[in-house]
Amino acid sequence: MSSPYLTLNVVELIQETADAVTIHFERPDRQPIASQPGQFLTLILPCGPGGKKERRAYSLSSTPGEAPRLAVTVKRVAGGLVSNYLLDTVRVGQQIDVMAPLGNFTLTPQSGATRSVVLVGAGSGITPLMSMLKAVLREEPRSQVLLVYSNRNEDSVIFARQLQQLEQQYAGRLQVEHVFSQPLRPATEHKHTGRLNRTTLLRILEQRQVPAAQAEYYLCGPEGMMLEAQAALELLGVPASRIRRESFVAAADSAETAAGQPNGHGDVSAAEDDGTIRTRTVTVQYEGAEYQFAVEPNQTILEAALDQDIDLPYSCQAGLCTACRGKCLSGKVHLDEREGLSDAEMKQGYVLICVGHPLTHDVVIEVD
Ligand SMILES: Cc1cc2nc3c(=O)[nH]c(=O)nc-3n(C[C@H](O)[C@H](O)[C@H](O)COP(=O)(O)OP(=O)(O)OC[C@H]3O[C@@H](n4cnc5c(N)ncnc54)[C@H](O)[C@@H]3O)c2cc1C
Ligand code: FES
């Protein structure tokens, strides 16, 4: 398998709002880079203490149709290390190390499809939705897209002009509904004021005559917004299989949620396998190699591997992006966070090593 690492040139910067910039990349040889709408790029930047390399996931706001370009859109997070470094220092002509696009929050365009796609996002959560939206509009001439996009006010809307242009270009196929929590100007007929909650979403879906139970839903934004959207869709009888979601930040109570739900297979036979987190040796298989190393109680499996200079794939280090996903072939693993995994993946024994701790002596994980 070819290396997942690439060095890309920054070829264009677009200031989207006062605190968000789109960074366009190309490979130096201008060859296209495989990606799917909804995937993310991992940027690797030397902005940690003492020049330590830091990784962060940024969803692609571009679509595969824009190859050889890839774009990400970064919003400044107050006090955040990488987002501030990028917004303050990134320049056209700079080279940035990345890990090739990854992620399972994807929409695959099908040219013959006739479907209704509903995208619900807030703030920087627009990025993967923008990629999906452009892909469906370009590649599925019979499909409809409704974007419900929540922001503080009119000035914080990322891609405002592009969305307006797309609405005109694809009149009748793209509908955009903005929701502003603190609007600067008086509301007009298509603007919704207040938080994007279940009532607002239900009203918009009804006004826009979305065939609710048949549509496909993609959610990306703060936990509260996504829970409200899920509650609205549940009221409309939308099957869970039609709803996909992605989080950029771990929910505050995520560790508690995952606690007591060890994920794993196989028998707990040894006396020391008492379900507590303690120093244990794990085996990780990756790209044909097998590694064995000890994981201390204060470490995740990924941290222990990195301490041993074992080069495993990772990005967010928060259990959100699935870059470090692996299948637990034996033993039990405790996950501090499971946002990135669906119930079906949990049942199949998938784990995220960046938030995983071995609970038994016989843990073997095959990293994807
Ligand atoms: C799959 C995935 C895709 C992502 N895509 C994008 C994207 O397209 N655009 C984008 O701007 N960001 C995106 N992010 C978030 C991004 O990876 C970083 O987490 C974000 O830029 C903050 O990094 P930082 O180094 O500036 O902050 P850090 O120094 O890591 O964090 C500082 C503090 O801010 C909090 N924080 C982190 N992210 C956010 C946030 N988004 N909102 C509020 N608080 C936050 C952290 O919990 C922490 O307390 C994505 C994350 C994931 C997991
Ligand atoms: S590195 Fe993102 S889920 Fe583990």
Beta-strand percentage? 25-35%
CATH hierarchy: architecture of the largest domain: 3-Layer(aba) Sandwich
The geometry reads as globular
Low-confidence stretches: 255-270
CATH homologous superfamily grouping of the largest domain: Nucleotide-binding domain of ferredoxin-NADP reductase (FNR) module
**CATH fold annotation of the largest domain:** Rossmann fold
What's the overall average pLDDT, rounded? Answer: 92
Helix content: 10-25%
Q: Radius of gyration, Cα only, in angstroms?
A: 21 Å
Largest sheet: 7 strands, mixed
Q: Tally the helices: what do you get?
A: 8
Would you report the number of β strands?
19
**CA distance, first residue to last residue:** 12 Å
**CATH class designation of the largest domain:** Alpha Beta
Order of helices and strands: EEEEEHEEHEHEEHEHEHEEEHEHEEE
Bound molecules: flavin-adenine dinucleotide, FE2/S2 (inorganic) cluster
Sheet/helix structural class: alpha/beta
Describe this protein with a few key phrases.
six-stranded antiparallel beta sheet; 8 helices; binds FE2/S2 (inorganic) cluster; Ubiquitin-like (UB roll); Rossmann fold; globular; binds flavin-adenine dinucleotide; alpha/beta; Elongation Factor Tu (Ef-tu), domain 3
